[in-house]
Amino acid sequence: MFPKKEKTQAEVETINKQELEEKIIQVLKTCYDPEIPVDIFELGLIYEIKIDNEAIVNIKMTLTSPACPVAGSLPGEVELKIKSIPEVKNVKIELVWNPPWDRDMMSDVAKVELGMY
After folding, report:
1. The whole model's pTM is what?
2. Is the pLDDT of residue 85 over 90?
3. Which of 2, 21, 65, 78 is deepest in the core (most CB within 10 A)?
4. With 90 as the cut, is the pLDDT of residue 24 above it?
5. How do the domains of the chain map onto residue ranges?
6. What's the confidence (pLDDT) of residue 35?
7. In degrees to the nearest 10, what's the CA dihedral of 75, 76, 81, 86?
8. Which residues, 6 or more positions from 5, have their beta carbon under 8 angstroms from its beta carbon?
């Protein structure tokens, strides 16, 4: 038998961040734009998820349009849902408009759900 290799602190942090990001993505998949029956992650509205070593999460997201009827509520919903993940210490949502969202940003799953294939 080979001796079990101990993981470095960096490897442990990377694995924890990776697991936490997967949990965040699962939570994001419970948030929907009410006009489109596909979750915001598959729609491509999440541009970036960053997790620091203190488990503070920064998310850059957009909306389908600046006039989106949930512009005032969806970012808050995303923040509350991500804060409900026990490992998350804090969340900052940044609403961005560049690059502008378009249908090409949707995942294949979203395109299938919307009958675009």
Report:
1. 0.84
2. yes
3. 78
4. yes
5. 10-113
6. 81
7. 110
8. none
